[in-house]
Design a protein that fits this description.
- This protein is mainly α and 75 residues long.
- It has one domain.
- The chain is built from 4 helices and no strands.
- It starts with 5 loop residues before the first helix and ends with a helix.
- The mean pLDDT is 91.
Amino acid sequence: MAQKKGYEVDSWLARPDPRISIVLLYGPDRGLVAERAKAFAGKTGLPLDDPFSVVRLDGSEVDRDEGRLLDEART
């Protein structure tokens, strides 16, 4: 598992590592998160509307169910 710092994300998204099977994009700026998700999808061919490949969670959902994020990552 590797966590990227904010300033490293855009360069990583320009050339994502194909060995990485799970990517978590998060942050307080929803617009920036959405922009980065689109960039990642564009580079990888991942369809953002595919419910089997993409999960969208609000922070409140994770707060209510602390295991939810891990459950989603394992599916």
